[in-house]
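Throughout our pipeline, every protein is held as a single compact record rather than as scattered files. The record that follows is passed on verbatim for readers who wish to inspect the format.
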Amino acid sequence: MKDTKALTRSEQSALKHLAYHEAGHAVFAWALGAKVTEVTIVQSKECPAFCQAHGFRFDSSAILMALGGIRGQQMLCKRVTYAMREDASLDYQIIYDYLAWLPDADEKVTAQRLRYFERTSKRIIACPNIQEAIRAVADALIENTTLKNKDVKKLCLAAGAQPIP
């Protein structure tokens, strides 16, 4: 990755959005009790930036972790931009596919469930110090490009965030 000082203003903005997106995933995963194996903003044609966590089944916690990336980006920009829509589209597709796969999931039920998870993710981002933790993780990602579980946990706790019971 280029030195961040050598990046254009547009590249710096895109990097910051990406860092907040991935930090949102990582902090939500940590807060919901998962172990964040790795979170990175390094991208290539073969591998996009990602947050890898384990410790929960693909259930409500995983859906909320996916929405955490969107909430992280929204901390920077309240309006949805093209870049945000592009980053969020894969997250929403994964969530929607899972919700639509559940028993009794017709279009109306799936939409209701999605609204429920949207509201819940907004409550999580409003929890004390969660936004501070996302900022800390995003800043560390911009500086280091990749973080491990111990780094995410240390940054979250230093920001005063607490796991959500």
